[in-house]
């Protein structure tokens, strides 16, 4: 086998390793950015149960099936469940996190435009799962 | 060939190091306001670009190998284990 060289293989392996490092680093960076909650974010407790969503604001205000927030503010959701696993989803804002009994999962977002958006359970949770919906109302800032 | 290796090494370092730096710089500092839709979809589109480019290169390489190393290629040479009866 004279004239045979392994260099192309080694270059191939090197390129693959470099691409995998790059992919991992980019994904890590994106995850870091979306997981770091701004300091002034308002906490909203989100509770999933068969088959509706309950929201509790920092001032104690409670809402069922609908959530009112203000545009341009950051909100941190503390998501929990009282029965089975649900998944809290605001599709238009790419918010998606499981509600697991015995756990508090957190995710944050800052609405950018005034409007209405669907809230939906994304984890099959029983008979009425399909109708475990809510509405997010993004309103003008009050102050 | 050594030049090629050096070139690829430099290119790899140029791409990987900045990405790693920004990731390792992460601490527990509070986050800044951002649109998660932009971050997430940007990541998705960049990853898809990489995936399709790599897929095209791999598929192209396989097609070229099949074409170049077919028995009927004008420059085909028998390998040692194929014998000398060509």
Please describe the topology of this protein:
The complex is a heterodimer of chains A (143) and B (86).
Chain A: H1 7-35, E1 42-49, E2 52-56, E3 62-64, E4 66-70, E5 75-81, E6 86-90, E7 95-99, E8 105-109, E9 115-121, E10 133-139
Chain B: H1 2-24, H2 36-68
Instruction: Give a quick account of the main beta sheet of chain A: strands, pairing sense, barrel closure.
Output: 5 strands, mixed
- The SSE order of chain B reads HH
Largest sheet of chain B: none
Give the averaged pLDDT of chain A, no decimals: 93
Number of strands of chain A: 10
Report the C-alpha radius of gyration of chain B, rounded: 23 Å
β content of chain B, as a range?
under 5%
What class would the helix/strand composition of chain B place it in? mainly alpha
CATH class of the largest domain in chain A: Mainly Beta
For this structure, the quaternary state is heterodimer
> Which residue ranges of chain A are poorly predicted, with pLDDT under 50 across at least 5 consecutive positions?
none
The CATH superfamily of the largest domain in chain A appears as Cupredoxins -  blue copper proteins
Strand order of the largest sheet of chain A: 3-2-1-5-8
Mean pLDDT of chain B: 83
Per DSSP, the total helix count of chain B is 2
Estimated helix fraction of chain B: 55-70%
In total, the number of domains of chain A comes to 2
Distance between the termini of chain B: 32 Å
Calculate the terminal CA-CA distance of chain A, rounded to whole Å.
79 Å
Can you describe what's shown?
The complex is a heterodimer of chains A (143) and B (86). Chain A is of the alpha+beta class and 143 residues long. Chain A folds into two domains: 36 residues; 98 residues, Cupredoxins -  blue copper proteins (Immunoglobulin-like, Sandwich). Chain A has one helix and ten strands; from the N terminus they run αββββββββββ. The radius of gyration of chain A is 22 Å and the shape is elongated. The mean pLDDT of chain A is 93. The longest helix of chain B has 33 residues. Chain B has a domain of 34 residues. At the A-B interface, helix 1 of A face helix 1 and helix 2 of B.
